[in-house]
Amino acid sequence: MENRKNLMKKIKTALISLSDKSNLLPLLKVLKKNKVKLISSGGTYQAIRKLKFECLEIAKFTNFNEILDGRVKTLHPKIHAGILYKRNKKSHINDLKKNKFESIDLVIVNFYPFEKTIEQIKNHSKIIENIDIGGPSMARSAAKNYNDVTIVSSPENYNDLINELKLNKGSTSLDFRKKMSQLTFAETAYYDSVISKYLNDVLNIKFPNKKIIHAKLIEKLRYGENPHQEGAIYSMSQKSQINQIYGKKLSYNNYNDIFTAIEISQSFERKKGTVIIKHANPCGVSLDPNGLRSFKSALNCDPLSAFGGVVLCNFKINRKLAIEMNKIFLEVIIAKGFNDDALKIFKTKKNLRLIDISKVFPNEMFKFKSFDNKILIQSNKTEIFNSKDFEVVSKIKPNKFQLNNLLFALNICRYVKSNAIVLSKNMTTIGIGSGQPSRLDSCNIAIEKMTRFNKTNGDIFAASDAFFPFVDGIEKLIQSGVTAVIQPSGSIRDKEIIKFANSTNTILVFSKKRYFSH
Amino acid sequence: MENRKNLMKKIKTALISLSDKSNLLPLLKVLKKNKVKLISSGGTYQAIRKLKFECLEIAKFTNFNEILDGRVKTLHPKIHAGILYKRNKKSHINDLKKNKFESIDLVIVNFYPFEKTIEQIKNHSKIIENIDIGGPSMARSAAKNYNDVTIVSSPENYNDLINELKLNKGSTSLDFRKKMSQLTFAETAYYDSVISKYLNDVLNIKFPNKKIIHAKLIEKLRYGENPHQEGAIYSMSQKSQINQIYGKKLSYNNYNDIFTAIEISQSFERKKGTVIIKHANPCGVSLDPNGLRSFKSALNCDPLSAFGGVVLCNFKINRKLAIEMNKIFLEVIIAKGFNDDALKIFKTKKNLRLIDISKVFPNEMFKFKSFDNKILIQSNKTEIFNSKDFEVVSKIKPNKFQLNNLLFALNICRYVKSNAIVLSKNMTTIGIGSGQPSRLDSCNIAIEKMTRFNKTNGDIFAASDAFFPFVDGIEKLIQSGVTAVIQPSGSIRDKEIIKFANSTNTILVFSKKRYFSH
Q: Is the complex ipTM more than 0.90?
């Protein structure tokens, strides 16, 4: 009991310095009830006085008038010593007495809204003006000395403080102060990370020596990839959020598939189409000005795998399409909006989740993933194809329709896990071979899918994410009906492969660029 | 010309406050040459005086004696106003004059070594004592006012400053000051991120509302997954680094494969074995007390795919094994050390890279990956199997050898991209089906590999990363020679599957846990 008492700290003096002055009233009431002396300045002082509470101005507390338009007011030894001194250390108490300094037991602070500022304005000088100096300094002082001092650095914690003071009759517990300290260092680290990222962007620094990534929790997930793993999803910026409009909570794997689907759809530019994802790989993609047809064609690529899959339409879903989609079991449907009719139909399914991506657009230039204590970072592969990169190396030249179909196959191929082979027809995948250690195996899988579910007549296009090391893969494709192939080139057997293409009247295009994906 | 001149700022007064006092001499020489007045205190003051340079004590500059064992010395308006005032603003200049404050044009500071401290000591109070308050405050003030003030916050930039002052005869350019400001906010953000992570760990907070990740650049890579993508690798802590002892620079894909191999090998515990990786998937794994045999067996799983692969041996490689490995083309060989004889043999190959992982051990509990502006985070799946989780559901019960082999297959299975099927024999994979949208397809691929490269007699074990939705997959496996199966269970057809196993005298074990991997 004695011990617990020692861990309790009575709040006698509070320093309040706020950028966001909302929700102050209930807090001030509790502070007044506990006879806490308030110190403040500027706008916060005025807000407190307006609510009819007594308050001492910082300038009177420190005997130092704020200068430089408020740039310097709390950066004063009387403030920082009052916060930082150790209450159980004699020499510290003496230092305070000698200087006629007073104890500050509670600091309530929040910072200039730097993150909001960079979202709202483009003027660099004004943005820099919004870097808070005094606030983070005070917050860090108080958070460091959590043993004696209570710090509240976000309006989100006002209620916690109110409850704590009520529970402990004007005191705070060590556990509470420690927790608030932890939140505060998250706050200051986050704040400077936003500034750091902004300055890196301004100076176009892609790979700084010290990289700091900041993100806000969207939600803790029921579990990770598997039920025995914990998982959560975070957001690095408030721009561009997916909007779930119906259904159960999204799972880790749902999110994984949704983001893969969005990434693929963003490569379509303005073309209308459908993507079906299963286990983070596309198992059916089709572009078609007719939305319903694009779904049916995408589904037809591998209707068995589509079962329980994630479907994205980069257009608004109408009643007719909804009826068609409802015929099979899907976990998630993503669209640029849903007609009311369509919504009604979908909502008959309890296990379906609906996502609106009308307001989703790409933000970040880089992707990263961690392995233990390492992070691999790379730029996105969403660049638009440049026709100059492509070289037709076969005797037979593709017409525009054929070239477009080859580029469609290659575009999808870059989102399929390597080694990847995509077979397509009329801007629709008809066979996808994914995730194999050998290219020939991926060819065989793609061919097997094509022959099992699709007709093999007419022009059939094939794309490979990397070069064919031997003739065998391309040979297998052509034997199975492929009439045109696009691949990066770069093999020592390129000549042999061109020769083979010509001997079989196959169109062969070199994309020059490789598209591994893991 | 006029404009450029205005952007130049003459350094007249410098404030120096250092935790790391190394490499000061050349810097002090240049400052002296340019008649810069130095202000400092404590250990830095003594270090400067010891090098025979003149220096004014901060206490004399501010007329305020440092208190609280140095906790409060630079947190003074005279310091911060001297840094923060805008040199082109009349009211600011007047504020300075009125208070008899002086200009501070250059701040050289580095912080208490918090990161080193938490690596070296465990005492929480001492760790907290190492949170620097004054340093970051000054650094942030100077970095905010980079328009007028030069900030150097790391000894790494002393030479840059020396060169800048030499080039501009005691002045600094706006570009330089901006660059230093950017580096400083990276420094303060990194610093508080380390503190934040430390406090999260102390309080066991896994998914904080605001998450900040800090990392140091190991190296910029030649490119990312593909030559047209930029890439880099970062490290979140200095503990546990892979050590490249021979060969060309590692590529993004090398790192990706190396980390996958290490992760798998860490699941072996103390058992000796070899892992072969291709395109981030294992294509051969074998445990064997005889290292040479473990390599040969792993290779035999899919010798074609192993071509150009990444091989990991969790033991020291000797001459005999090196001779065997040198027979095929490998990109990377990873081991817990190499005998000198082995090294000599490997060094005949120009394109081979050798990695020593003797000092690598797992650190982080969580993995993350980004998609545009989102981050998915989850705990690792490296938990050790618990025999209580497993339930033998077939009439025929596995003996210890059989159960061990089933667990081996399941263990590898959780590192194969889903849907994953692993076939094994004598603690060696003999067929791996990876990355398919349908489980049956993965079964077929695994079987195809087994029959192409391996004998199909004797006990053959199969593991599936998730339940079989239908009997067809397991039926196919058993028809192909599989004698025992382990799978999570959870299908509505579990009973049917048990019945089928019993009707074919197959051992069937439910692992209860699912092991998706994407």
A: yes
